[in-house]
Amino acid sequence: KSLQFNGENKSILVASDVDGVMTVWTLQPDNSDKTDKNDYDEPGDVKLRATVCPVTDIDAAESMNTVSVRFDGKVVAVPGRENNIEFFNLETFKEIDERKNLQCSDLEHGNKENFSVVSFSPNGKFCFAASKDKKCIVWNVKKNKPIVVLNVSDTNVCSMDWIEGENAVVMTNADGEWAKWENVLSSSELIAEGGSKTNPFFQATSADELRFFSNEEDSKFATKDAMLDGELDDDDDMEDDDGFVEEDEEDEKENRKRELGRPSATAHVSAPVIVAKGPKPQGSFQVNSTKVNPDTVGVQKRRFLCYNTLGSVVATEDTNSGLKNVEMSFHDTSRGGRMPTITDDVGYDLGVCGETGVLLAAKSQIFFKPYESWTKDSEWTLEMPEDERPTSIACGDDFVAVATSQNMLRIFTSYGAQKEVLNFEGPIVTLAAANDSLAVCYREHFSECKLKFKVYDVEKRIEKYAGNVPLSCPDSEEADKSQENIVRLTWMGFVENSSESALAICDSTGICRIYSKQTFSGSWVPCFDSKKARDSDLEKHWIVSLSNKECKTVVCKSAEYGPSVNPKPVLSILPLSVPALQLEGSSFDIEEKGLTAKLALNVCNAAASEKLSNANAKRARDRELAEAKATFDKAMMKCLVEAVKADRLARAGDIAVTFERPAMVDAAAKFAKAMKKSNLAERILMLAEDEDDEEDSSDDEDDEDSSDEDDEKDDGEKVKDDFEAAAKTPAPKPSSVAKQQKVQKENVAVGSSGKKRDSSKSTPSTLKKKARTSAGGDKNPFARK
Predict the structure, then answer these.
(1) How many Å apart are CA 761 and CA 570, to the nearest integer?
(2) Which residues pair with 393 in a beta bridge?
(3) Residue 303's closest CA among 285, 288, 282, 321?
(4) Which residue did the predictor score with more confidence, 620 or 782?
(5) How many CA atoms lie within 13 A of 725 on its CB side?
(6) 3-state DSSP call for residue 174?
(7) Cβ atoms of 128 and 138 closer than 8 Å
(8) Kind and range of the H or E element at 600?
């Protein structure tokens, strides 16, 4: 549960575990006072093991069992099992006299449960402790006096630290919240303690103030306890000569407490601290769903369980009768297979309108209804375990996925066959699916705020790519005013059309990003800013889907609650826009369109690299790639024109290299000549020649490989045909055999002389060169004239 070294030399390591055992190891043993080498300590030897701390669970944040070593490395403080703090001497490796233990459970405002956090102040004069009953106490160690008590109202403190230069400490809890406890010591207490008013916990302390125990007292204490334990073990009912029963160990402890003489006055109770709540980890949510707006007027409360480009799933609740139902509808009313309205008896709170069916989920049940099926009764229902509930769902072409509260990802076929069960290291935040791809956004740990993602190919059972989820930084001034401005992930999905292998996200600031595998082997690229796209501050964009060119949103008043069911939402199609900077001598819009076209091209190139078995899908992908290349070349040509007009010829040369089609390079050279920029035109043609030579060399290599394969294939087929023909032909006469041998010899002689060659066969490379020569009259269309 806790580890700490004994100062800068790190010669001793102190630890506590869940069983309440404190262990001390020596890492740099000092054997100077030992004469017998057999008694020498070795690095890693256990010098002390004591069962003194409370027993805790391994994940119990309210019971940390922290150990604290004083700055000089001579004393360690640990939580005890009697609502106290115990001390151990790290020089003698013995427990310090228990009369020096810190305890105030008998006071009015003292702790009534065990401590979980203990910490010496940097100067060793004070000790901070936090208990399980939400008490924070600061002691003067030498005086054995509780100075101040703080009642924490929310959750137990699990960690703290002293603030240098201030009369304050900072604390955190397991929910990720932190608080600053200011003015820990009052003015009168500062005067009484004789410390600095601005830095009481860091001010240097004299050796006398640190000496709150002596080795002699410890030895007497240990000897007395040993004698007492031996006497009790021999005979618990032993009587002395006077006929009185000896005091047992509990009576001895009570006498010691009375001898200690606890202060009769209650420790000062500090004023409440100002709690500054840190960012709470994001909870799970369902993509493309809305919440019920509390301002809605009417008997029926309606909200979208799902609203996407295919259709919608609406949940309705009658506030008077309490009846609930779920209704599904397509945006294309001519499409068949719509699910009829069902009565909701289980309380469905998650829904997805997928390509093959509708998936609904409640706390205890999963229900799937396919649009079409080759058999009856194809819908299926699954009951969830009591300790596991669905938190997010998604539908692909041939699968459905369910994320649960136990960090499980359960994958089924469309007809309910269990396919895979995956366990993530942290809670799953949301899911998204398209075709055979499934995206999972999750947290690394239950208290971790950082989000990560993985994209799977469910059909091939492989992980396609993974990484971190970037979120925007809130405005610093707004973040200081309110902790509600924490940025959250609000939407996740795949890019539409044939490029559905690219993942896209949107956060609460309205920034959308697309993951481009072609950009530095996988990077997030910002592509849409809601603040810049909206007409007024009252408008909010609720994201429905993204393509590689546009964003489909619904303009509504609140992004938190989303669009209302009535009236029906109206889609607004807005172009994507990669944030660009305005260069000198160029237009901002042109630069922005160029970067946006580059993003669309990268997404299409990444999609083109994946193999598709469907011929129609492949043709659609090729058309999209050709269109993206044309759009990119057009945008780059505008950038080149702006650069030439601004006399930025070096920039124009860099732009010319990026063209995807050779015809655009030729057009750029002609434009440079028309603008009387001959040096730029020569530069563009030179770059085109180099690029063309590289293409020819690669084409020749490919053609040679393919021609060799074709020749081997043709030779094999020819041998096979000759064999079959020979098998069918009757045996020749001796005279015909001689003639055939003579003809074969003539053919061999002609072949070896090389005078006769079949020039009708041409490789693709030669055909390409002939086409260039016939079209331009030169081997290279970009060669100088």
Answers:
(1) 61
(2) 402
(3) 288
(4) 620
(5) 6
(6) coil
(7) yes
(8) helix 588-608
Average pLDDT, the chain: 78
Angle in degrees, CA 418, 422, 424, rounded to 5: 155
> Under 8 Å CB-to-CB from 501, ≥6 apart: which residues?
437, 455, 464, 494, 495, 517, 606, 607, 610
Please give the structure tokens belonging to residue 226: 């040993």
- Bridge-based pairing of strands 145-151 and 268-269 is parallel
- Say if pTM beats, i.e. exceeds, 0.70: no
Rounded to the nearest 10 degrees, how much is the dihedral formed by the CA atoms of 327, 328, 332, 337?
A: -120
Q: How many CB atoms lie within 10 A of CB 220?
A: 12
Out of 221-225, 271-275, 340-344, 571-575, least confident range: 271-275
Q: How far apart are CA 354 and CA 306, in angstroms?
A: 10
The one-letter amino acid code at 240 reads D
- pLDDT of residue 391 exceeding 90, the answer is yes
Place of tokens 């008490």: 135
Residue type, 704: E
In degrees, to the nearest 5, what angle opens at C-alpha 221 toward C-alphas 215 and 225? 145
- Cα–Cα distance between 568 and 564 in angstroms, integer? 7
CA separation, residue 198 to residues 194, 209, 210 (Å) = 12, 20, 21
- What is the band of 766 on the pLDDT scale with cuts at 50, 70, 90? very low
Which residue, among 518, 522, 538, has the nearest Cα to 530 in the 3D structure?
538
Complete DSSP assignment for 363-379: SSEEEEEES--SSS---
DSSP 49-102: EEE-SPP--TT-TT-----EE-TTSSEEEEE-SSSSEEEEETTTTEE--GGG-B
782 confidence band (pLDDT: 50, 70, 90): very low
Q: Tens digit of pLDDT for each residue in 153-212?
A: 667 888 889 888 888 888 888 777 788 888 888 777 777 766 666 778 887 777 777 777
Residues 611, 501, 508: CA angle, nearest 5 degrees: 175
Task: For residues 677 and 644, give the distance between their C-alpha atoms in angstroms, rounded to a whole number.
Answer: 8
Q: Is 399 left (phi over 0), alpha (psi -120 to 50) or beta?
A: beta
Q: CA-CA distance, 775 to 771, in Å (whole number)?
A: 6
Question: DSSP alpha helices (H): ranges in 235-355?
Answer: 249-260
Contact (Cβ atoms closer than 8 angstroms) between residue 137 and residue 148: yes
Asked if 270 and 149 touch (Cβ cutoff 8 Å), the reply is yes
Nearest by Cα to 117 from 83, 76, 146, 160: 160
Position 783 scores a pLDDT of: 41
Q: Which amino acid is at 296?
A: T
- Structure tokens given for 702: 């490919």
Closest CA to 169 of 107, 239, 103, 120: 120
* Residue whose C-alpha is closest to residue 330's, from 348, 360, 350, 353: 353
Percent of the chain with pLDDT over 70: 74
User: Closest Cα partner for 13 from 76, 85, 57?
Assistant: 76
Burial bucket for residue 316 (CB in 10 Å: 0-12, 13-18, 19+): middle
Give the separation between CA 679 and CA 522, rounded to whole angstroms: 37
Q: Looking at residues 750-756, what average pLDDT do you find? A: 42
